[in-house]
Amino acid sequence: MSTAILTGPPVAGSPLEADLRTLGFDVRTADDAASAAALLAEVPAQERVALVDPRFVGHLHALRLALTDPRFPAAAVPGALTAQAAARPALARAVGRIPVGAGTAHLTDVLTETLTDSLDRDDTGLHRVELGSLVATVALTPAQRAEAMEAVAAVDDEAIRLRTAVKSRDGFFTTFCISPYSRYLARWCARRGLTPNQVTTASLLTALIAAGSAATGTRTGFVAAGVLLLLSFVLDCTDGQLARYSLQYSTLGAWLDATFDRAKEYAYYAGLALGAARAGDDVWALALGAMVLQTCRHVVDFAFNEANHDATGNTSPTAALSDKLDSVGWTVWIRRMIVLPIGERWAMIAVLTALTTPRIVFYALLLGCALAACYTTAGRVLRSLTRRARRTDRAARALADLADSGPLAELIARGAHGRGRTGSFLAPAMAFLSAAVLLVWVIFEADPASWLTVGVAVCSALLAGAAVSRPLKGALDWLVPPFFRAGEYVTILVLAARADVPGALPAAFGLVAAVAYHHYDTVYRIRGGTGAPPRWLVRATGGHEGRVLAVTVLAAALSPEGFTIALTALAVVLALLVLIESIRFWVSSGAPAVHDEGEPA
């Protein structure tokens, strides 16, 4: 239970106390700043506390936004403010600074505004809610109160609440085919006490059932899989809308929403591959290729965004052109559809599953994702080359974390430290060569399962270490993590495919899935402001270069059948290691409460 303290002249017949109780607050009253300070001291330090002027007039949703949003340590609208545990000391200091005696009426007449200004000056992370057409004001006279109540009656706050439950920026399919009704499903869930995490879990279970249906390999199973995949996506949209509608944001919810999206899609790929195998068509290489391509696309998105998260001086003509195109409505939707975001992608997969074969689904998926990757990556390269900006230490640290360099690359980087110039193209060039040398060898060598391949992997690790030997502050240094991902994932794919034994590609699929989960987990930790996974985990998993070296050694030392068993064992060990640490972290994390807004791809 949170506590709301009414401080100011009482207003007879006001529904304010009832509204506060509806929002879950225990309501108390204070006559002045001194009694408010005494009441604040009585509330346990870990609880949320709110100060509200009894003369407040406004929409219930305005109060909800100001007083119940868990993402901000402190928040305010005119006449009401709240502080969570992190901002409670600052609020107590602000109340303690209120003077008493003659000449202080201007400070205590509307105490909430004085305290809000004080919290703002103290840099406590105060969030001033943007009300839009919602009303929130302090009515000092009967005339002002009557006018404010008329303004409240003229605006339907429930309609606003429903509208703002939908993301302001989304794909065409989601915006026009899902959100018009999924927002009402979100409200239905909220009124029945369901949480976003429960809806997220329902979406995952639905997708897993869809994958199981696809794995039957029958036309009926494929049709059911397509329908269930679309239903899973509806629930996937609903969980975020429910979080925004009811302000049920949480660190755990953000993690579940983000990771379950990947788990659903990749489990569905596996289901399609199993279904095709039942019909005598082996498409595991295509399934793994689709997962690799999609994951690398996301790494490009994440790395570019982190590199420019706090960059200064964006003067890119490419960005200016994009801003101009945004003013032409139809170009916005076309550019959003070109990148094949999750809504369009899942709709395409669902329809093609129901009407065609898994092989055609993967061909379409690989072609569509490849075109989207070329479009987005080319645009980002142009932006990076034509902008004048100074990358920050935070951006360089994030890119280094996304690179996922292990002990071997760290050792090489220390030896190469000081060589090369920060801000040059050396880092992405070395990363590209690291991946290219290895991939050209394993793809075109007659027998890549040899000790020569291990030697090439060592050379690749040397180049990888050189790539991260200096801070990644160059214009194109955000390409370093995607090059490393492509080199690692595709090497595993090719070695498994060329082993040419049953089970090798499914084992490689499982290994890449476990590693990809580790990389997504790294992204979401950085986004949550808690930094990358602990170094012991990165070292224990070997880093990208260590895993590549391990896989090439296994391929050279073992028979194809033994290599398959080793890949399976490695996948299980890595999955357990990263999952246990990830679950431990997110369940106990002190990261800010957020809700993942999704990626454009």
General description of the model:
By secondary structure, this protein is mainly α. Helices cover 67% and strands 5% of the residues. It is built from 26 helices and eight strands. The strands form two sheets. Strands 2-1-3-6-5-7 form a six-stranded mixed sheet, with helices on both faces. Strands 4-8 form a two-stranded antiparallel ribbon. Strand 1, helix 1 and strand 2 form a beta-alpha-beta unit. The C terminus is likely disordered.
Q: Shape, please? A: globular
- Counting helices, strands and paired strands, the structural category is mainly alpha
Strand residue content = 5-15%
Radius of gyration equals: 28 Å
Helix content, binned percent: 55-70%
Subunit arrangement of the protein = single chain
Give the N-to-C terminal Cα separation.
40 Å
Estimate the mean pLDDT confidence. Answer: 90
How many DSSP helices? 26
Q: Segments where pLDDT lies below 50 for 5+ residues? A: 596-601
**What strand order characterises the main sheet?**
2-1-3-6-5-7
Strand runs, count: 8
Largest beta-sheet details: 6 strands, mixed
